[in-house]
């Protein structure tokens, strides 16, 4: 009875599987990576007794965009197709009378029935259709729970330092090798394989690969604050680091990498800013401009000193004497580095090879002042030889003798509003008459005289003595 029943089941099963099947798969959601194909059986179909694990020769398998169809027989991948359209199965393993000539079909039926009879009337093989989602899988969030080392390299200033940064964002990936993904990840899945079964492992490996990827990005000279603008380079670096684990082993590749923000600790940010500011001072021109601005701030602070402006200016003078290179020396160094010729403009409005111009208001920076003529061109004699002190020291350019400390002799005559020094009743430059009845001032302590003697400052910039009636010139 058992043999008769086995023979009957083998014949009936073989005849039931003669119908061609139509396999399809509905749209794969972003959460579904692999799904098993479904045989289409409508209400009018007579193919209701066929085996779900048998694919008859000549059957059609529908492939949609973003899908890759895989045919698996007895656990082994037989074929794959990612081209949209209808795939026709023709392996010769399950012959049908509808797949070729009728006589050949009958021979195939007899052979298939005999093989099934040997397995007790059932099929001795297992054939399945799987669909792999090859579209972009977005929405994978990541974030660094602990700071990640990042090497900051700035060859312009010679900076090479390691800091710690935190970052977060999203990334997407694609299955680029469906057969490798099936063989090494999902395997003989029953119905569907979802992303949540592998996302945690991918996230851990991604965070591990961030450090070597950041190292390659830093070698390109990209700063950590500019990382959100270089996500393509970062994606390529991550794919290069993860190529063996993801691409070769699992058939996965990072498709897009987004970064919301990158932050470093406040200590590291302050350190980098301080190093950058210090590196700027290596340029003599920038150092001179910074020093000039600092001296201007110091003058304003000294004038507003609560202990008296004289005390403030005395402290500023002591700081100038204890300082290093002056403004003119820094400008000269910048001129030599840039290969500029004399009388070419330098940063801050100075001219190479010439002393700094005395600021308005009568104050100067302690680096020498420049006398002006109507054409704003200093006289060649004063620029080269300077003035001679009563002690015999020649070539002095400041307001005090470098040998004995005596103040520079004041120019005789009266100073016109145009700046020219005259001895007659009229100005030799503009023709204005000598002012009558207007008091002219000159410091009675050090002998300093303002550019316009009729408009002195509140305090002498050289010694700090306040101007009063005792400073009026006789």
Commentary on this structure:
With 474 residues, the protein is an alpha+beta fold. Helix content is 31%, strand content 19%. The protein has 11 helices and 15 strands. Strands 6-5-8-2-12 form a 5-stranded antiparallel sheet, with helices on one face. Strands 3-1-4-7 form a 4-stranded mixed sheet, with no helix packed on it. Strands 9, 10, 11 and 13 form a 4-stranded antiparallel sheet that branches. The termini are far apart.
Task: Please outline the helices and strands.
Blueprint: H1 2-16, E1 22-24, E2 32-36, E3 38-39, E4 60-63, E5 67-73, E6 76-81, E7 85-88, H2 102-118, E8 127-133, E9 137-143, E10 148-154, E11 159-175, H3 178-186, E12 192-194, H4 199-219, H5 231-241, H6 243-250, E13 252-264, H7 266-280, H8 284-303, H9 309-322, H10 327-338, H11 380-384, E14 414-415, E15 421-422
Which labels suit this protein?
about 475 residues, alpha+beta, five-stranded antiparallel sheet, four-stranded mixed sheet, 15 strands, about 20% strand
Order of helices and strands: HEEEEEEEHEEEEHEHHHEHHHHHEE
Based on CA inertia axes, which overall geometry fits?
Answer: rod-shaped
Number of distinct beta strands:
15
Average residue pLDDT? 74
Report how far the terminal alpha carbons are from each other. Answer: 149 Å
Model regions low in confidence, pLDDT < 50 over at least 5 residues: 346-384
**How helical, in percent, are the residues?**
25-40%
* Strands ordered across the widest β-sheet: 6-5-8-2-12
Q: How many strands, which pairing sense, and closed or not: the largest β-sheet?
A: 5 strands, antiparallel
Q: Gyration radius, to the nearest Å?
A: 46 Å
Structural class: alpha+beta
């Amino acid at each position: 009875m058992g043999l008769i029943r086995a023979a009957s089941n083998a014949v009936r099963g073989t005849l039931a599987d003669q119908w061609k099947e139509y396999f399809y798969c509905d749209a794969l959601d972003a959460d579904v990576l692999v799904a098993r194909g479904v045989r289409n059986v409508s209400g009018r179909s007579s193919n209701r007794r066929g085996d779900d694990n048998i694919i008859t020769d000549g059957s059609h398998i529908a492939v949609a965009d973003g899908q890759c169809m895989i045919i698996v027989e007895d656990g082994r991948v037989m074929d794959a197709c990612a081209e949209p359209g209808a795939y026709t199965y023709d392996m010769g393993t399950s012959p049908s009378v509808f797949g070729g000539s009728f006589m050949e079909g009958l021979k195939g039926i007899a052979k298939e029935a005999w093989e099934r009879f040997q397995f007790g009337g059932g099929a001795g093989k297992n054939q399945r259709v799987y669909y792999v989602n090859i579209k972009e899988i977005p929405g994978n969030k990541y974030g660094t729970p602990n700071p990640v080392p990042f090497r900051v390299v700035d060859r312009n200033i010679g900076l090479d330092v390691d800091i710690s940064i935190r970052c977060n964002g999203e990334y997407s990936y694609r299955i680029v090798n469906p057969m490798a993904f099936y063989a090494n990840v999902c395997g003989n899945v029953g119905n569907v394989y979802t992303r949540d079964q592998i996302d945690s492992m991918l996230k851990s490996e991604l965070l591990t690969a961030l450090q070597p990827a950041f190292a390659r990005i830093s070698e390109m000279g990209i700063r950590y604050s500019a990382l959100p603008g270089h996500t393509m380079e970062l994606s390529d670096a991550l794919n290069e680091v993860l190529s063996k684990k993801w691409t070769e082993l699992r058939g996965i590749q990072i498709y897009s990498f987004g970064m919301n923000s990158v932050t470093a600790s406040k200590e590291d940010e302050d350190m980098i800013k301080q190093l950058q500011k210090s590196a700027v001072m290596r340029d003599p021109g920038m150092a001179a401009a910074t020093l000039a601005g600092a001296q201007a701030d110091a003058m304003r602070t000294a004038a507003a000193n609560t202990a008296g402006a004289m005390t403030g200016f005395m402290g500023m003078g002591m700081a100038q004497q204890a300082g290093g290179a002056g403004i003119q020396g820094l400008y000269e160094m910048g001129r030599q580095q840039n290969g500029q010729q004399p009388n070419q403009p330098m940063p801050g409005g100075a001219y190479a090879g010439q002393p700094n111009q005395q600021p308005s208001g009568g104050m100067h920076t302690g680096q020498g002042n420049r006398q002006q003529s109507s054409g704003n061109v200093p006289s060649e004699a004063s620029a080269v030889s300077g003035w001679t002190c009563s002690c015999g020291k020649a070539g002095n350019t400041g307001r005090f003798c470098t040998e004995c400390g005596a103040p520079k002799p004041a120019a005789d005559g009266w100073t016109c509003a145009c700046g020219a020094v005259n001895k007659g009743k009229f100005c030799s430059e503009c023709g204005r008459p000598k002012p009558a009845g207007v008091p002219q001032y000159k410091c009675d302590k050090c002998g300093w005289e303002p550019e316009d003697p009729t408009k002195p400052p509140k305090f002498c910039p050289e010694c700090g003595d306040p101007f009063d009636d005792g400073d009026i010139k006789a």
